Amino acid sequence: MTAQILDGRAVAAELLDRVRTEVAELGRKPVLATVLVGDDPASRTYVRMKANRCVKVGMESRRIELGADITTAELVARIRDLSEDPEVDGILLQHPVPDQVDERTAFEAIDPAKDVDGVTRTSFAMMAFGEGGFASATPGGIMALLDAYDIPLSGRRGRPDDHRRPARPDRARGARPRRADVMLALEV
Q1: Rounded to whole angstroms, how far apart are CA atoms 72 and 69?
Q2: Where is pLDDT greater, at 44 or 135?
Q3: Rounded to two decimals, what is the model's pTM?
Q4: Which residues touch 151 (CB under 8 Å, ≥6 apart)?
Q5: How far apart are CA 9 and CA 141, in angstroms?
Q6: What is the three-class DSSP state of 57?
Q7: Are residues 139 and 160 in contact, defined by beta-carbon separation less than 8 angstroms?
Q8: CA–CA separation, 136 vs 161, rounded Å?
Q9: From CA 19, how far away is CA 65, in angstroms rounded?
Q10: What are phi and psi of 106, to 5 degrees?
Q11: With 80 as the cut, is the pLDDT of residue 1 above it?
């Protein structure tokens, strides 16, 4: 088998061009709300990158920054407000959150229709059963890269490396249905 270099930057640029065109055709700016709890430097960088990407494709980025001392109930209330806001199209709760916050409870407060990171149980179930939903960022990006190069998965072996849950990005919104032998490694 010959090695092949996959140019993720080129694929990302093409994807951004497609998204920019789709956003322009909407007639309004979609809104992505990012929720950052605390001041984790890596999380702050990730949220800033998302805001920059929103600008590049013509979307609005609404950044909600909350103190590290927030409670689960306070965070859930803020997320529910965003979920109920008709102007907000997508919500991304940046994790990790501080230790005193129940991250799972906070994720579940996101309306699955606005869960752009695929973190709610409903979103994950929809993706796993091929009924739409957003793919988690890393496995979804990997599948987009493989799709861009028409790399077949049938008969291949692999292992998702996501410590939170097994990945099935092949069943995410817009993904081509494909099969691969996937070994799941779950933390117990």
Answers
A1: 10
A2: 44
A3: 0.79
A4: 4
A5: 11
A6: helix
A7: yes
A8: 12
A9: 26
A10: -65, -45
A11: no
